[in-house]
Amino acid sequence: QVQLVESGGGLVQAGGSLRLSCAASGRTFSNYDMGWFRQAPGKERQFVASISWYGTTSYGDSMLSRFTISRGNDKNTVYLQMNGLNAEDTAVYYCAMRGSWRSTYDYWGQGTQVTVSS
Questions:
Q1: Which residues of the chain have pLDDT under 70?
Q2: DSSP assignment letter at 113
Q3: Contacts of 31 (CB under 8 A, 6+ apart)
Q4: What confidence score (pLDDT) does residue 112 get?
Q5: For residues 24-34, b (16+ Cβ closer than 10 Å) or e, as one string?
Q6: pLDDT tens digit sequence for 95-114
Q7: pLDDT at site 64
Q8: Given phi > 0 = left and psi -120 to 50 = alpha, else beta, which region is 42?
Q9: Are 23 and 109 spatial neighbours (Cβ–Cβ below 8 Å)?
Q10: Could you tell me if 13 and 115 are in contact, meaning their C-beta atoms sit under 8 angstroms apart?
Q11: How many C-beta atoms lie closer than 10 Å to residue 118's C-beta?
């Protein structure tokens, strides 16, 4: 049974930073691509960043210069470092996992709230 548990969300002032973590269990972590998504109230879910099983990264348009995704295969954990946060970054952030042979994410965490005060 796959379990993804996010942590690290909270309240931060505009311009501040947060580091989200997502601990995975139930699969051989190093064989899976990992992603971060977010959803703000009343908006559709938005792609934030992804990292392939071999380390290739991809970012949403507005995140490239401010966010960094990384993974620690020794700890079965994926991270999202977020700098220069603004009010538009306020959302619930979700971690997701997919097999490298898959085009869609099969497993999702419960989400962690990020709130940026202006």
A1: none
A2: E
A3: 53, 99, 100
A4: 98
A5: beebebeebbb
A6: 999 988 888 999 999 999 99
A7: 78
A8: left
A9: no
A10: no
A11: 9
